Amino acid sequence: MLISVTSIMVSCQSKKTEADSAGPLLRVNVERPTVDSIVLYQSYPAYLSSDNSTDVVARVSGYIVGKHFTDGEIVRSGAPLFTIENTPYRAKVNEAEAQLSSAISQNEYNAKHYEAMKKALESDAVSKMDVEQAESSLHQSEASVKSAQAAVTTAKMMLGYCTVTAPFEGRIAAPDYNVGDYVAGEGSPVTLTRLYDDRKVSAVFSVEDDRFMEMTQTAQGSDVDYSHIPVNFGDSISGTYVGKLSYQAPNVQKATGTVELKVAVENPRDELRNGMYALVDLPYKVEPHAVIIKDAAIGTDQLGKYVYIVNDSNKVVYTPIETGQVYRDSLRIVTSGLTPTDRYITRAMIKVRDGMAVDPVESAR
User: Fold this and answer.
1) CA–CA dist 145, 171 (Å, integer)
2) In the structure, what pLDDT confidence band is assigned to residue 93 with cuts at 50, 70 and 90?
3) Burial class of residue 234, CB neighbours in 10 A (0-12, 13-18, 19+)
4) pLDDT band, residue 349 (cuts 50/70/90)
């Protein structure tokens, strides 16, 4: 009996020594997933298009004798941009006005002559044929006056084209022609430069037709808001702009199988430009009970994404998960593999292994 008690004491001392040599359990930080109602987005590459843009053209021929803007500046509506030599067009105005004056004089004479012929007919001094000829001459001279008036209007219009003005307020591009260059715009308009109204721009992008139909059906009767769509510009512009869905193409592009969409974006800081690259985060679904964890707590191996959770016995469990989009920069949506009651490890991940006993410390939210 003495031998048995001694053996038991030796065994207990051996186990205590092994426990002491193992040291304290590894302390790890754990959290429980957050459950929240969030909007799901799909990102699409886009380019910016000015709300209004046009070619500034020359519609007369001649040498450019004046340029009245600084490249890249904002010009007001109606501001003169170019002056084209107007000598030949001024001469045409003078010629047309002279022809109009002559036509008016002839018409006045014919009107008086016609009245005189009608009175003479009353006393049989002239024949009815003479009166009809006088009336015909009057009508012809009236037509000549109208034709001459039209010629004056056209000549003045062409003279006015010698001063090229801005059709609306906008930012003016560097010109293709400068002072001293000859332009032949009378036969066919010649583009001198281009004008952009960037006070409002549109982010233009395309969505696959099946995805577009899915999003449209999902959005019906849901809380998806297409009036506050995030538009990002990466590192080129700090901050995120918000726009409103303003256009959905009525047709599907056969070559690409996509539908063109536009998001209207205000440009209050005047930093957005036509042709800039953008990324549109298009909302397509509201997830009322999304499971969200810290993105940094997710690992990746050959099997995919995973997290370490701590079970009720305070042992580490390797847990494969499926993930969705990033949320608020540092969080990630988990679509399967994790429940709201699970405790997942947020720190000391590289020190733990599956089945390891740990000392979990749950962080306060």
Assistant:
1) 44
2) very high
3) exposed
4) confident
Is this structure's pTM higher than 0.70?
A: no
Side chain identity at 297, as an amino acid letter? A
- Condensed to tens digits (0 to 9), the pLDDT of residues 181-239 reads 999 999 899 999 999 999 999 999 999 988 888 777 766 656 788 889 999 998 778 77
Confidence of residue 20 (pLDDT cuts 50, 70, 90): very low
CB 305 within 8 A of CB 322: yes
Say whether 204 sits in a helix, a strand or coil: strand
Token duo for residue 356? 């390891």
Instruction: Write out the two tokens for 207.
Output: 């969505």
Q: Which residue type, as a one-letter code, is found at position 314?
A: N
Both tokens of 99, joined, read 């022809």
Question: Which SS3 state, helix, strand or coil, does residue 7 take?
Answer: helix
Strands 241-248 and 61-67: unpaired
The CB density around residue 92, as the number of other CB atoms within 10 Å, is: 18
What is the chain's length? 365
The one-letter amino acid code at 28 reads: V
Coil, helix or strand at residue 138: helix
Classify residue 296 by its DSSP letter.
G
For residue 266, CA distances in Å to 74, 119, 242, 255 come to 17, 74, 8, 32
Q: Cα(192)–Cα(169) distance, rounded to whole angstroms?
A: 17
- Residue % of the chain over a pLDDT of 90: 71
Place of tokens 């997830």: 287
Residues facing residue 326 across a β-bridge? 332
Say if residues 301 and 312 touch (Cβ distance below 8 Å): no
Q: Provide the token pair at 109.
A: 């004479």
Q: What is the largest CA-CA distance in the chain?
A: 172
